[in-house]
Each structure stands twice: as C-alpha cells, then as structure tokens.
Specification:
A: 207 residues; five-stranded antiparallel β-sheet; 36% strand; B: alpha+beta; 5 helices; 9 strands; elongated
C-alpha cells in the first residue's frame, strides 16, 4: 500500500476517534428571554457542567436587600452593580464522576471601551462585605448577603451537587460584556468565553 | 511481475483523488469538532433544564465527628447535637429567602412523615433569621421537624458549608457520612434507605 493511502487511513482513523470523543464534549450556549419580564439568561452546558447566568431586575435586587435589612441607598447601589443569578451544577453521571470546582477569582470580564479591551474581575462578596465593616449595614443583613451570594470558591460533587447565588459584575446598567468562565473537572482546567452578556437596564429606561 | 506493478500503480492513481478528498474532509471535521459548538440563539422558552442527574448523596471519607452545637428551637429550648447520639440525623442548613431551600423543604417534610417513627432525627438549621421570619414562612411551608436558629451563622461556618441548602447525614456516632450540596428529593427511598442503613445495629 502506498504511503498516501496509509496516511489517508491514519487520518481517517484519528478523525473518527476525535469526532467520537469531541461529540461527547460538545458544548452549547443558549440565550433565553423570559416573555413576561423580558429578562435574559445565558445557559452554558457541556459534559459535566450546567451553568446559568440570569438577569435580575433592579426592583428584584433592591427589594431583596431592603427586605434583608439593607439601607435603601446600599440596596440601590447593589441593584446598579449588574447583579445576576448564577447557577452551577455538576451533571456528571458517569460511574466515576469528577468533582467540579469553581473559583470566581479565575473569571474575567472583558469589554470594549473606546476601542480598547478592558478586563476586570467579578466583584466578590468579600469585597462588598469589607465596604460595610464600618457597620453601615446590620450584621443580620450582612449574613443574608453572605449566604445569598454565590461563594467565591466551591466544589460540586458528581452526585447532583448544585448551587444558586447572586454574583455582582460591578458594572453599570446596560453594559455589554464578555465573560471568561473557568472551572475544573477533576484536575483538568476548562474555560469558555460567554459573549455579549448584558447588564439589565436602569429603572428609568425600564419604565 | 512488471504487469502486477503497473496494475498497482494504476489503482493507486485512481485512489489518490479519493484519498485526497477524504483527507481534506477529515481535516475539516477535525477543525469543526475540535471547537466548542457555540450556537447562540434567542428563544422565548425558559432555559433548558440540566440533563437528568442521578439522585445521590456524596459519601464523605474519612468519617469525622460533626462539630457540636448548642442552638435554640422556635420555642426557645436548647438543643445540642450530642443530644442526638444513638440515631442517624439529617441536618439541613437553609433560609426562608433561598429558592432551592423552599423547593426541597416539602420533600423534607414528607421524608419526616416517613421516618419519624423509625428512630431517625431531622433538624433544619435556619441561618441568620429570626423566629418571626420563620413563623411567617411556615404558613406556606410547614416544617414539622425540629427547627433550630443559627442567628449569628457561627454554626454553619464551623461546618464548612459554602451555600444553601446544604444537608448532612450523620450516623448514630455523630459522624458525618453523607452530604448534599443543593436540594434533593428527600422523601425518596433511594435516599432514605441510605439513612436507614446508618441505624445502630
């Protein structure tokens, strides 16, 4: 058999293997819009991970924190900081499933400002909490904030572990940005760029 | 021999274009499938549910004795964890404002109806809220098993919990055996049989 034929068969075999393995790892990102509220959510799924980022209205955010005991000025500040709901679930159903680990410090927000790419991290709950160390916010309200916010670091076992929480992107209303999400499946680092996530618009424009 | 060689060369020449096309096709498939398929589409439908996952609890290893606590219930009566030695205990950390907590509480209440006469204890430890908050909440979400108040959230911190709801199952020696991060359908026998298996024999 000539070398070309051998090479051809080799490539075809590798292709079959890669398609079969990559087929199992194919990821999907879908953008959904709630017909009633107009709020959007971004759902990213691939083998072992289900992740959802959902817009929250300014009223929802402010109302939640006021109900928890936050002063209205700080609840408004939180509402204006592009807070969204984050859901992460380990969907690994395999016999020897992998631990899914997330550290929000690894996530990168990027946006284009005047033609230049600007990057920043998520505004973590520890950063917010430090701003209230002077007791502008009551202890009980800070406790509710701490437990309602998605943890900075968390492991999700392959037994259906999941968590919901809010995450603050620290951006003004209506900002459009890309988000590089990073997670570990076992020891394997994985990442994906979710493009064009949009902060909800300000209250005036919502009316 | 020369004729056979010529025939081989002729058949190779015929195969060559086919092989080239197959190789190019293979390269195209590799290029396509090696990237994530990122179709983005807007749709008015709610976000798709995650793929069905086996209902399981995470087995913890090695076994460690759970940190003790001393918390009051809704009647102001103190409860220590060590009071519950001798029986398996399901301990759930929750809050009234936590959506997955609200979703799983009815199943926990149904589970309680199943196990309450079987020598199994269940405790719901509320984090950071007042008796009044819980009293109002119970109107829509009754909880018939023990509710304790971790008002300062000190206990949940000592247990290493990261998010709500998180539930632990302890054996009769007070050791942490199972954990569930996120809600579960607690009234299924798949889960309750695991708890039953921890009863002292």
């Amino acid at each position: 058999m000539c070398y070309l034929a051998r090479f051809g068969l080799f490539v075809i075999n590798i292709t079959i293997i890669m398609v079969l393995s990559s087929g199992m790892a194919l990821a999907t990102i879908t953008v959904n819009i709630n017909e009633k509220t107009g709020l959007k959510n971004w759902v990213y799924q691939e083998a072992g991970l289900h992740l959802k980022i959902a817009q929250l209205s300014l009223d929802q955010v402010e109302g939640f924190y006021i109900a928890r005991g936050f002063p209205s000025s700080i609840a408004e500040q939180l509402g204006q900081s592009c807070m969204m709901q984050l859901v992460v679930k380990n969907t690994d159903n395999s016999e020897k499933g992998s631990m899914l680990s997330v550290n929000l410090k690894d996530w990168v927000i990027s946006r284009d400002i005047d033609g230049k790419k600007q990057e920043q991290g998520i505004k973590l709950k520890e950063t917010w909490d430090a701003e209230w160390a002077d007791e502008t916010v009551s202890k009980s309200a800070r406790i509710a904030f701490r437990w309602g916010t998605f943890p900075t670091e968390q492991d999700f076992a392959p037994s259906g572990d999941y968590n919901w929480g809010v995450v603050s992107f620290g951006l003004p209303p209506q900002t459009i940005f890309d988000l590089q999400i990073v997670w570990y499946q076992g020891t394997k680092k994985k990442q994906f760029l979710i493009k064009n996530i949009q902060c909800v618009s300000s209250a005036e424009e919502q009316d | 021999m020369l004729v056979a060689r010529k025939n081989r060369i002729r058949s190779m020449k015929k195969m060559a274009p086919i092989l080239i096309v197959l190789i190019l096709l293979a390269i195209a498939i590799i290029a396509f499938s090696s990237r994530y398929l990122t179709t983005t589409s807007s749709s008015p439908s709610p976000s798709p549910s995650p793929s069905p996952t086996k209902v399981q609890l995470t087995k913890l290893s090695p076994l460690k004795v759970a940190p003790d606590f001393n918390l009051v219930d809704l009647d102001g009566v103190q409860h220590k964890l060590t009071d519950y030695r001798g029986k398996p205990v399901i301990i759930n950390f929750w809050a009234t404002w936590c959506p997955p907590c609200r979703e799983e509480l009815p199943s926990m209440n149904r589970a309680w109806q199943k196990v309450k006469d079987e020598g199994i204890a269940m405790i719901a430890i509320n984090v950071g809220e007042s008796e009044e908050d819980i009293f109002v909440f119970n109107g829509d979400y009754p909880i018939d098993f023990t509710v304790l108040l971790d008002t300062s959230s000190e206990v949940i911190e000592t247990w290493g919990v990261k998010g709500l709801p998180t539930t632990f199952v302890l054996n009769s020696k007070g050791e942490l055996v199972y954990r569930a991060v996120g809600g579960r359908a607690w009234d299924t026998d798949t889960i309750l049989d695991k708890v039953r298996s921890l009863q002292a024999k």
